[in-house]
Amino acid sequence: MRNLNRGDLPGLTGVLRATGAFTDAEIDCAVELLQIVLDDPEQKDYIVAVAGEEGAPIGYILYGPVPLTEGNFDIYWIATDPAVQGSGIGRQLMAHAEEDARSRGARIVCLETSSQGGYERTRRFYDKGGYLEESRIRDFYKPGDDRITYVKRFSHGKEE
């Protein structure tokens, strides 16, 4: 894993598009957050880890501490190139974010996703990673599309 650099933006935009999981508006939002990280190195809300040591990036994770909470972190985005999905890159990105969050005092890591069928593989990925469904808000994104929040809890630096 490495830090984000400006040259990663076209490759990461391509990764987001290639997944087929995100709408154009979602991709614009994801790229906007990457821009914030690049344009404001002093900001503390978002942390990015990029997979791919040489050449084009093959994935990334964007996460950060939740303001006004004690030890709560959110994972906002994770994406890997479909060509490497299933090879463990996503797991490595998650493990990196969790380890970094724990080193910063994380008690809880949260993430959210859609209930739509196209996100079934994503939900299985979270389940296998030890995340538990904590809540569901029906019709959150649109009618028939629930927001599912997953949580992983840590106590004394270890997973519960």
From TrEMBL:
Domain of life per record: Bacteria
N-acetyltransferase domain: residues covered: 1-155
Record flagged with keyword Transferase: yes
GO MF, one example: acyltransferase activity, transferring groups other than amino-acyl groups
Gene3D superfamilies attached to this UniProt entry: 3.40.630.30
Keywords: Acyltransferase, Ribonucleoprotein, Ribosomal protein, Transferase
Pfam families linked to this entry: Acetyltransf_1
GO cellular component terms listed in the entry, alphabetical order: ribosome
Keyword Transferase: yes
Coiled coil (UniProt feature): none
InterPro entries reported for this sequence: Acyl_CoA_acyltransferase, Bact_Acetyltransf, GNAT_dom
Record-given protein name: Ribosomal protein S18 acetylase RimI
